[in-house]
Amino acid sequence: MNNILNFFKIGIGPSSSHTVGPMKAAKQCITELNKTKLYLIDKVEINLFGSLALTGKGHGTDKAVLLGLLGEDPETVKIETIESQLNHIKTTKKIKLLNSHEINFSMKDIKFNKQQSFQEHPNALSISALNKKGSILFLNTYFSIGGGFIIKQGDSPTSTKQTPLPYKFSSATQLLTLSKNNNKKIWQLILENETSILSENIIKTEINKIWNTMKDCVQKGLNTSGTLPGGLNVQRRAKNMHDKLITAKHNHPSSIFDWVSVFALAVNEENAAGGRVVTAPTNGAAGIIPAILHYYEKFYSKLTIQKLTRFFLTAGAIAFLYKLNASISGAEMGCQGEIGVASSMAAAGLTELLGGTSLQIECAAEIAMEHHLGLTCDPVKGLVQIPCIERNTMGSIKAINACQLALNSDGNQKVSLDKVIKTMKQTGNDMKKRYKETSKGGLAINVIEC
């Protein structure tokens, strides 16, 4: 669980598992070589498997890997330079590894193995390097497990050294027990865990950075119109919808829903365009938490760093439980693992901001997921556009509804968060592969491409 804010990674669209993860894997693979070995490389080959191969084109996986080989990082890459860098590789048929060692490279060196997959995880990529004699210098395989997290084949998810935490938990039941026995809210427990790793000042600085990136993303989305890339000719709607809202003379009762929706649309239209977003916990579900925070600030009160800390640490604790006991990868769980988890996180965070007890927070998180169970991941043409963008508006509204239901109860619901997470995992495991980010089922095959 070191560190909980890793669930909120700053990166680029359109996908945390298909864009951010592969870019990080490619950079890590090349960076691990010392300079002597780097200059022995004469050829690099990339193989994509499973979901990365099936929807990799639409998700920009090939482009992400190239950027990683160049030494770019998802958080810091200059978005305005991406296309020129990629065009340079395509036209010159050369790539400069870590921006220091140039080799010949063809786009044919990226292979999409649609019929092959790894048992460990459906999002797999292998990167190999050869010297001038054709001998393999290295062959590394990585799994992009959702939310921008990656694991190198052979490594355990917990192989890195873990700092002992004051409040260790692996279930919602344990978390609630710790909260009750220590008379602390969930966010207070998590803060003490986090400050055993980082200083409180660093944590709050990071939270501010995350929030400012979310706000910038919303503002850009609200001020940009046009057609999203990819060939589906999906028109951006956030700007037009926002313009109507701010010029409306009378507020209709449903205008609150419109405001929540427009915030979510703004983020996920930016994500679909390859803009700067924050995983929350994934790119495909990145609009829900910013929408809920903007909703709180617009209709309740200003967000201070203290409130943001309470929200993000509470939401992060919920994300940790899903990642530990199930998955936040659409390729493993379907969209319930992305939109469902994000809605659950947002419901918990909002309940904390509105004064809910720890029991009510757990209740809100459970309700939000309970009504996303079985949600499939079926992106049309492999693009994070249809139905992904609108799903963020629905997940946001459900988060608010779940919060209100929880606040109007004592928190002792019949279904616990642990049970719903277990059910989500079972449902994801039972779900046919074609409904898990392969674009082989559901809307992906029933929507006519124009």
Please tell me about this protein's structure.
This protein has helices at residues 16-31, 35-38, 50-54, 56-59, 61-70, 82-92, 172-181, 186-194, 200-222, 238-247, 255-272, 288-299, 305-325, 330-333, 339-353, 358-370, 388-407, 417-430, 443-446, and strands spanning 10-12, 43-49, 94-97, 101-104, 110-113, 123-130, 136-146, 149-152, 276-278. Helix 16 packs antiparallel against helix 17. The strands form three sheets. The chain has a five-stranded mixed beta sheet. The N and C termini lie far apart (45 Å). The longest helix has 23 residues, at 200-222. The radius of gyration is 22 Å and the shape is globular. The protein is of the alpha+beta class and 450 residues long.
In short:
This protein is an alpha+beta fold.
Query: Order of strands across the biggest sheet?
Result: 5-2-6-7-8
Distance N terminus to C terminus?
Answer: 45 Å
Round the Cα radius of gyration to an integer and report it.
Answer: 22 Å
Give the fraction of residues assigned to helices: 40-55%
Overall mean pLDDT stands at: 94
How many beta-strand elements? 9
Secondary-structure-based class equals alpha+beta
Uncertain segments are: none
Number of helical stretches of at least 4 residues: 19
Strand fraction band? Answer: 5-15%
| Topology as a string of helices (H) and strands (E) | EHHEHHHHEEEEEEHHHHHEHHHHHHHH
